[in-house]
Specification:
This protein has about 60 residues and is mostly helical. The chain is about 70% helix and about 0% strand. It has 2 helices and no strands.
Length: about 60
C-alpha cells in the first residue's frame, strides 16, 4: 500500500515536470476541477481498495479450491 502511494507520488512529479497524464492523476475522470492532492488521494485510495478486494478474493478462492 505504501508502494502505491510512492509510485503515484512519482507519477505526480513526472506529470508536473513533463506535462503528461500518467496514472490519470492530471486529468482524472469524474473528478473535475479539484486540487491535485485530492486527485492523488482519490486515485491512490481507489487502487489500494481494489488491491485489498483482489487479495481477499484470491484468498477466498485459494481456501475454497
Amino acid at each position: 500500500m505504501v508502494a502505491t502511494l510512492i509510485l503515484n507520488l512519482g507519477l505526480v512529479i513526472v506529470n508536473q515536470t513533463i506535462g503528461g497524464n500518467y496514472g490519470m492523476l492530471k486529468h482524472t475522470p469524474f473528478i473535475i476541477g479539484t486540487p491535485l492532492f485530492v486527485k492523488y488521494f482519490a486515485v491512490s485510495g481507489a487502487l489500494i481498495f481494489l488491491m485489498i478486494i483482489m487479495k481477499k478474493g484470491l484468498e477466498h478462492f485459494e481456501e475454497k479450491y
